[in-house]
Amino acid sequence: MATLQPFHGLVPTPEKAAMVSAVPYDVVNSEEAAVLAEGNPLSFLHVSRPEIDLEPGIDLHDDKVYAQAKAAFDRIIAEAPLALDAGEHLYIYRLIMNGRSQTGVIGAASAAEYNAGIIKKHEKTRKDKEDDRTRHVMTLRSHTGPAFFTYRAVAEINALIGTETAKAPTFDFTAPDGIQHTVWRMDEAKSAELSALFADKVPVFYIADGHHRSAAAARTAAECAPNNPNHTGKEDYNYFLTVAFPDSELAIMPYNRAVKTLNGLDEAGFIAALEKEFTISDAADGVVAKPGEFKFYMNGSWRLAVPKFDISKFDEIGRLDASWLQDRVLAPILGIDDPRTSTGIDFIGGIRGTAELEKLVNTGSHAVTISLHAVTLDQLMAIADAGKIMPPKSTWFEPKLRDGLVSHNF
Length: 410
Hints:
Layout: E1 9-12, H1 17-20, H2 30-37, H3 45-48, H4 63-79, E2 82-84, E3 91-97, E4 100-110, H5 111-116, E5 119-120, H6 127-140, E6 142-143, E7 147-151, H7 155-165, E8 171-174, E9 180-185, H8 188-201, E10 205-209, H9 211-224, E11 239-246, E12 252-253, E13 255-259, H10 267-274, E14 278-283, E15 294-298, E16 301-307, H11 321-330, E17 345-349, H12 353-362, E18 368-371, H13 377-385, E19 396-397, E20 407-409
Parallel strand pairs: 5-10, 7-11
Antiparallel strand pairs: 1-2, 1-20, 3-4, 3-9, 4-11, 6-20, 7-10, 8-9, 12-19, 13-17, 13-18, 14-16, 15-16, 15-18
Helix pairs in contact: 4-6, 6-9
């Protein structure tokens, strides 16, 4: 069964929580992070994107970058300040975006359970990104960015969370992007009760977002254990920061594609190539109504593409829109053989809307953009249960969890 353990959280004072909290490191580049953190020395982007305080163009894996992260972390602990809770707690975390709320539990997940497959994944990780996150965590001796888990909803857990959220919150603020963040610190007795419910009622967690954070946490535990002659497996380094949400409260957004060139084709040639396997028709907009089809935008117009082949005959992976799009369009027609490494394709999170896809073509940076339907949580869980891996950039979750509200030291 799955572990969600109470821990000594490192938290800001309530009046500084909004200033300290920041978007995750992997949803902004260095330039965007610098703009967001400008004028706010308490922003956690100084920790998660420490290059913003170093010379422009520095190698992101330079020793100075990790040293700067540690210096910023220590400074914010002192100046905010951040304080380590005396007791071991779980924390309830609610996010509200555009009127839709999702409520999860901040706790410590088990690196051993990640290795054992009790924490299920659906994406491959890249070693260079694992290396970076592992070094960042080891330098800080803290997990400051939570992994994002989901699980099949349990009525008893929902009920206990409901009683906690009826109380006054520890933090409650609306971030500059309009998303409301509310955190409740549970007392130790209720934390233990909720942790026991997870251990009894939740057989597995699914990684929704945070595959590299989870992999880095497992590597962190593996690095720390040999250096402790009294290692028991219960030390804090064996656990890592996560927020676990019931599947009933989550929504996946599309993860769209933007391709820079038509691989030597003109518009007519591209459409002719598509028509060998798809029925093409004009479309009023870029919103895809159902899975099993896609829309594409070029030269000022949207078109709908409906497969002539039978998707239902494919396996769990092959039925994903991103899979047959890659196999039938991106690789053979547009020359995107490996979307993980190709410089000819960009991936656009659904939060940006179809207007962003139009903009990329209208400004000339891309030749065609492709709008997809979102993957469902049932599909994600079925693929993870089968031990299979989704195509890259298949899911986009919103809203994003913020760093800095609760950190897990070890």
